Amino acid sequence: REISVLWTLKPGAPWQSSAEEVFVCSKFILAIGHNAAAFLSCFILDSVCWEVVGVVKLWNEWCRTTNTTNVLPTDSFCLFYRLISDPTVLLCQCSCYVAEDQQFQWLEKVFGCMQKEDLQVTILSTCPLADYKTQESTLTLLSPFLKALKTKEFKEPVCCPLLEQPNIVRDLPAAVLSYCQVWQIPAVLYQCYTDVIKLDTVTIEAFKPLLSSKILKSLVKDVSESTKNLKKLLTTNETHNNIYI
Amino acid sequence: LLQPAVSVGNVGQLAIDLVISTLNMTKVGYFYTDCLVPMVGNNPYATAEENSVELSINAEVYSLPSKKLVVLQIRSPFIKNKYRPFSQALISWVESSKYARVILLSSSHAYQRNDEQLLGTPLRYLLTPDLEKAVGGLMQELNWKEMEKVAAYPGINDKEKVLHIPGGGITKRLFTESCSKGIQMAVLLKFCSEGDNIPDAFILVNYLNEWLQLIKSEVSTSNNSTDASSQWKIPSSWRLLFGNGLPPALF
């Protein structure tokens, strides 16, 4: 149940389990789940401006992380990327499920290597629509939709309505947000409620309002490339959906 | 210090929600631990748009200085194998913070009661020896019933009696630890089953109120008994406990 976090922070350096010194991080963008990770792949990440600097290896009853860094959107993986032009910007795609007894380890090993002054955290994640509690029935809701939760220190405007009580957030997004609330790090979680379990372009596009937020605005890729990536995603997935044709 | 045990029906936790909500207690800190499943949400005791935005996590501490009361609320279950570390962390926090008394609200499986326990009140109390000296007499006055010990080996040897709190989570562990460490702890528990435990929470919190007098209980003239149920404020987070609204097309 032990998870290992390996970093290669200097170019050409070997993978090691803890950074020799803490690295300065001003922005940490974390995408949890396949759709959130795919959103970052389509709209933010590319092989030119970003380099892989970290990887998490874990195993639990739900998944085992793959061994390569050349991942497909449907794989289970957890990779960290750093913006080459500004090494204090860290991005993480975590599409593997981190079990409840591993979440604290993940937090300690990831945040333990960061210098947390002036750090701002943005978390993207998805959640089944059926979990959303509301007076009306969930059938009448237009999905997917975004809801946000923020820590006390987060003062920027949020891109969507806040998550109302009695709704709660669980798992890794909750663990990260709790950590940020307790240690007074400004952080915001954007949770997308969707009725599609697998990788889905409509769900991915639901995150689009975030592209105008202060943190992501400067990191957005060229729009034409994004649409190309989305289309590519569509085709790689649809081969699996042809089973009934 | 008032706190719940994560136990059957979550009655202790519901009762604590009522205490925090009614007394309008202020959040003063977090009990940050790796022993509880993480969860976050917006302020569960929000009364208006303005105060609904504060983020809450799975274990938080509230206080009411006027009544010298500190409350710990626990909102999620324990992670496997973390019962003992949590109990130890809690006890050492109690000792280092020098709380005069600790009151644990808990519950136990109703179906595990023996024949005598099926009759009469479903509420029980337990006091550590150090607290017994201080308030044992008061318990007699209130006519409260102490939790009975049960036979360790029923049917074989009825002489050896042990304390048994099925469904109580860490209740027994905390109680026995407190006894050995000289902490003044009281356990107030109710026999109940899983289901709609809101009435159980009201009963438990009224039981607590008989002792601590946290809120004034009005004497109801119709049946001449004190019934403070209407005085407790239900938190806004208790909405929709049993699911969403129904789709209109269902009918």
TrEMBL record, chain A:
GO terms for molecular function: proteasome binding. It holds the Pfam family PAC1. PANTHER family: PROTEASOME ASSEMBLY CHAPERONE 1. Keywords: Chaperone. This is Proteasome assembly chaperone 1. It comes from Geococcyx californianus. It comes from the Eukaryota. One of its GO terms (biological process) is proteasome core complex assembly. The keyword Chaperone applies. The gene is Psmg1. Belongs to the PSMG1 family. The keyword Chaperone applies. GO terms for cellular component: endoplasmic reticulum.
From TrEMBL, chain B:
It is found in: Nucleus. The keyword rRNA-binding does not apply. InterPro entries: Proteasome_assmbl_chaperone_2, Proteasome_assmbl_chp_2_euk, PSMG2_sf. The keyword Disulfide bond does not apply. PANTHER family: PROTEASOME ASSEMBLY CHAPERONE 2 (PTHR12970). Belongs to the PSMG2 family. Keywords: Chaperone, Nucleus, Phosphoprotein. This is Proteasome assembly chaperone 2.
